[in-house]
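Run log, item B.
One chain of 383 residues. Sequence copied directly from the ordering sheet:
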Amino acid sequence: MNPIFAETGTSVFETMSRLSVQHGAINLGQGFPDDPGPRDVREAAATAVLDGWNQYPPMLGLPQLRQAIAAHYQRFQAIDFDPLSEIMVTSGATEALAGALMALIEPGDEVVLFQPMYDAYLPLVRRAGGVPRFVTLRPPHWRFDEDMLARAFGPRTKLVLFNNPLNPTGTVFSGEDLALLARVCVAHDVIAICDDVWEHVVFDDNPYTPLIACPGMRDRTVKIGSAGKIFSLTGWKVGFVMAQPSLLRVLARAHQFITFTTPPNLQTAVAYGLGKDESYFRTMRTGLQRSRDRFAAGLTARGWPVAPSQGTYFLTVDIGRMGLVDDIAFCETLVRERRVAAIPVSAFYAEDAIRTAVRFCFAKSDETLDAALDRLGQAGSLA
């Protein structure tokens, strides 16, 4: 068997979910809302499956969805994409990432990864024959600088994989961060694969700027978005890929031999959803921000050292400030003794892991968050 997968142990996500069930815990480890998603978008999918086309849709995606994606990004990010030659629909953002890495990596190419990182990145890079080079981000600010990039980028660097906002830390990178990364990409003639799935989940009225909008990046960026994150419908697995035509043609070949197409009723519903009034997107962010604030305030009142969360569904707690140095053992204790599941942030590192941060998902109902806070209790009793 392929050792990249055969030698991979049970993931901490699977472990924590199993322990959560075993101990009847409130699961704040898994990153999905307990809300069913917008009813009108779900109704559009139901109507489409009953009254619409249910055979193979076009490989690149339904024309109406590709047009809706183009209109959406022009409206929200002032980026013009040609729906015919620069946009593709995939079966989720992870498929888009896998296809992009398979299409663009040749064996021995180096790929720069920022850690902590989504757990799929590293095995996908290695399976495609890439050699990972890491930029290691550390609390409390989770930022990179020029020296860190200089150590990671080199003559064999082909790609950089960049997630903004960043899961698991909730960091939204600043314009200065993006400008620095763009300059390095241009200087090294590197393609950026941008995992922008959280682009609409940004809080406190902070602006969101994609890397593709930075000088020199329009023709060297693969931008990936997710309907699942935009509409809190994570099980739908509808992703978007945007890239200049010569890049997209190669990405489409990889997509052709992975999933080929995505359910047409879901594509129809997403096309409808992307055209929703701006008030939907504002209300979605406001609701998640309110949940973040409610949970953060509850933790803080109980003595938990909460780190800022600028976006995503997640916030982190700095257990190092509680005198603890083993996030895995802490999470196992938490699920067994307090019956609340969280995720150790060290699971998002390949090397030199930070062992003093724990991730909670706050995209839950008030009742779920309040019950979790009651179970967690005072932080001092766990230190």
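Observations after the first pass:
- The chain has two domains: 3-30+279-381, 39-276.
- The two ends are 43 Å apart (CA to CA).
Flagged for discussion on Thursday.
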